[in-house]
Amino acid sequence: MPVRADVIPACTSTLNRAGRSGLNTAVSSLTADQLRNFIGVFKRPGAVYVIDPQVIASTGRGVGDDAATCTFTQFTGQLFCNPEPGTLGPLQRFQFNGPVVFSWDFSAAKSTDLTERFKLEYRAEFFNIMNHPVFFTGDQGINSVNFGKTTSVAVGRRIIQMTLQLKW
Q1: Which residue would you say has higher pLDDT here, 12 or 158?
Q2: How, if at all, do strands 106-113 and 152-155 pair?
Q3: What is the rounded distance in angstroms from the CA atom of residue 104 to the CA atom of residue 130?
Q4: DSSP string covering the chain, please?
Q5: Is the pLDDT of residue 132 over 70?
Q6: Distance between CA 62 and CA 90 in Å, rounded?
Q7: Given this model, what pLDDT does residue 161 score?
């Protein structure tokens, strides 16, 4: 199941109202194929991004300070802006996919007969056995101060659980 770093919404109620147009897509000066070059995993000191941080403003947003004006000159590298009132952004919804979410779990059990009546069972369960972090990208609206930034993990650290049962 992919992490949804794929919407790139403007999250402005330009067509109807916020409840119905909260996922209005953004305006970009590039095509979808060109935008794919800016999507991936980008590591910076203290943060991991799914969108190249060079196209994010110093405020952490994908748009400039004047979000109401659709110009691509508000900061160096700007790729997105909000659609004009009454219009839709030209990018398709759900056009991009983020990192894949996966976690491998493993369990092993051994049952030993002690007597005819008593049995001893040992069981070990490992959740996320590879201890592989899977990042969660959170709010990906271009007006969010966390645009393109991973804010937490979708799959937590490795957990090991062991049980010993006496059955009769």
Answers
A1: 158
A2: unpaired
A3: 7
A4: -B------B-----SS-HHHHTTPBPEESS-HHHHGGGEEEEEETTEEEEE-GGGS-TTS-SS-S-TTS--S-SSTT--EEPPPTT---SSPTT----PBP----EEEEEEEESSSS-EEEEEEEEESTT---EEE-----TTSTTTTB--EEEE---EEEEEEEEE-
A5: yes
A6: 16
A7: 97
Label residue 31 by pLDDT band (50, 70, 90).
confident
- Cβ(38)–Cβ(8) under 8 Å? no
C-beta separation of 41 from 150 below 8 A: no
Residue owning tokens 């203290």: 46
Chain position carrying tokens 């059990």: 109
- Among candidate residues 85, 87, 77, 89, the one with its CA nearest the CA of residue 141: 89
